[in-house]
Design brief:
The chain has 78 residues and is of the alpha+beta class. Helices cover 26% and strands 24% of the residues. The chain has one domain (7-76). It has three helices and four strands, in the order ααββββα. The chain has a four-stranded antiparallel sheet, covered by helices on one side. The radius of gyration is 12 Å and the shape is globular. The N and C termini lie close together (11 Å).
């Protein structure tokens, strides 16, 4: 299932190392969202050890700063 995303959101994700697989239907590499903090921060759990420009450490937690991933989670529940 291909998901239509806001053009500006896709433009912000231009340096995605996973080639926007989360919005193309190839979601096997997508990080699992464990919680949405304050409607802003996506707390994630990643199965891969891939270095990602959008993954930030917050103590023992990982936060995803990718606007495309956030939009998919909030709008589509993915």
């Amino acid at each position: 299932m291909k998901t239509d995303l806001d053009v500006s959101t896709q433009a912000q994700a231009a340096c995605c190392q996973k080639a926007l697989s989360c919005s193309s239907g190839r979601r096997e590499t997508i990080c699992k969202v464990t919680e949405l903090m304050l409607g802003e921060a996506l707390m994630i759990q990643c199965g891969e050890k891939l270095l990602c420009h959008y993954k930030e450490s917050f103590g023992s937690w990982a936060i995803c700063t990718c606007s495309t991933r956030k939009e998919l989670y909030i709008e589509c529940g993915i």
